[in-house]
Amino acid sequence: MMGAIGTRSRDPREKRPWTFYALASLCGLFLLFLYGPMLVVYLLSFQGPNGGVTFPMVGFSLTWFRDIFEPGQMANIPVAFGRSLALAGVVSLLTIVISVAAGLGFRRPFPGSGVIFYLAVASLVMPSLLVGFGVGLGFQFFDWQPDLFTSALAAQLTWTLPFGLFAMFAVFNRFNRSYEEAATDLGASAWQRLVHVTLPILLPGIIGVGLGAFTLSYDEFARTTLVIGTRNTLPLEIYALVSSSSSPTLFAIGTLTTAVSFLVIGVAITVILRMQRRRAANAQRS
Amino acid sequence: MHNEADTISATGQGQDAVDVRFDVELVAVTKRYGATVAVDRVSLRIPRASYCCLLGPSGCGKTSTLRMIAGHEVVSDGDILIRGSNVTDLPPVRRGTAMMFQNYALFPHLTCIDNVAFSLKMRGTGKAERHARAREFLALVHMQDFADRLPSQLSGGQQQRVALARALITQPRVLLLDEPLSALDPFLRGRVREELKRLQRELGITFIHVTHSQDEAMALADLMVVMDHGHIRQAGPPREVFERPANSFVARFIGGHNILSSGGKAIAVRADRCRLGAAGDGPHMSGRVAAVEYQGTTVRVALETAAGEDASVLLPDNVFFAKPVRPGDAATLVWSDQDAHALAGT
Predict the structure, then answer these.
(1) What separation, in Å, do the N-terminal and C-terminal C-alpha atoms of chain B show?
(2) Which of B73, B183, B204, B279 is the most buried (most CB within 10 A)?
């Protein structure tokens, strides 16, 4: 991996212009605007058992978190959470496989490659709700039952695939083809070249695309809502809950899903760092 | 330059009558990218076990030529023979060539030893055996102590040695080097240059080395090939090229020459054979001193002649300081007839 980019520390006698402080405050306000509302939600999710969805806090409890895990009449959060995870897993796996293949294919222009590229771009600006509607209509036309791993999967792929394709183009753009030429020069077949050289070198980028697709799928709403069938994903279940009741349980869900997101990101980063460290450690044992 | 008939006779020979005098033969090799011709009917024969430098400015077709020999670029027209057999349509691995890439292209995820053992792994050689072989080749380039390092933990010079070991382990008949010294600092460049030459002599195989530095080519080459605009402008031993440049392009590119017009014809005179003096019986040209550069053992005096041409004189330092000149001084460039060398057009 590349070493750290050298950062030059500032000489204390070097004065900063007033614009620095003005722009820094603006940036601080922006961050407050980004995180302020969520901080309120996190705080209110610890509302006491007799408290409501607004301030003041009436005591402090984990009641609302307990509430999440008790299947109510309105919503079954744990089951929906499990479905969302499973669906996001499948979506990210398919996105990786297809976009890696497409990335490999698009490196050399072929007749129609430009048209296909722009069609993929254009699909990103299509209104999400209508895409979901179209998928739903298609299923109805063929008299297929909409379900999690059929129509919902298809609707989510219309979103994650173009994204994955773009991200993969960026990954491949930075890939130096001389690695592949060197592999060929050393007698690797096309398959050996892919397995032993191209994919291992691109792995960090591929993991990134997978994580991106995972999070896109995990909180997708607009495309999924019309084609989900009878088994809701987490965002749909939460929406159902919002429209039917208002209690601090909602806030607790918000806090919990945020924690899960940070956990996923944290685990991914830890795994990547440990992989690198082990590689470096192996290398040092000489 | 090689004449056509000479080259064509080589193609007539099949596998059964292998011409062992040459490691590599190019027969009217052409590379076209769309409408542009990068390499235009280039013919060249590289004798056995020689150090050949392809030299020229960027875009002259030297790298395309090398990549066609390696098999990384499709030949648009013509044939490439290695040890007498036609390899034009063979994949790189079956040509008996190995290439060292300009940025070395060491696989960043593999340790040095795994990089060097890569070709053996692709052939299905067992781990113990391929590592033993790889250690031998790392030792050949004095990198045995770095076997378990990753490329990113090595300096540029060390990476280059590993890349060299990785190419040599395939036991090529011809080693192709794409600007191998360009990424190194000037001090290291000199040392690596010596080492490349030593390896080539010891291994007794042909090296084809692409460079844009005439110093490098002159220091290393048995056969120096000067290219421009997809053509070979001159091919021969460095001394022959330097002493008798075929045309003004070669004379200009390899440097150290004044290209002057004398009696309506272009001539080349080596700058170190020119002197500053008074107009006498011999050939001369009057002008003005444009610049003086002290270079240690020599002093270079740049002149602008009355006809508006640029010329320079390389004077030994004691000669210059015995009678120094300064920019703006009037000066006369003198040389002797025997040092003048007639040039063909361009």
Answers:
(1) 15
(2) B73
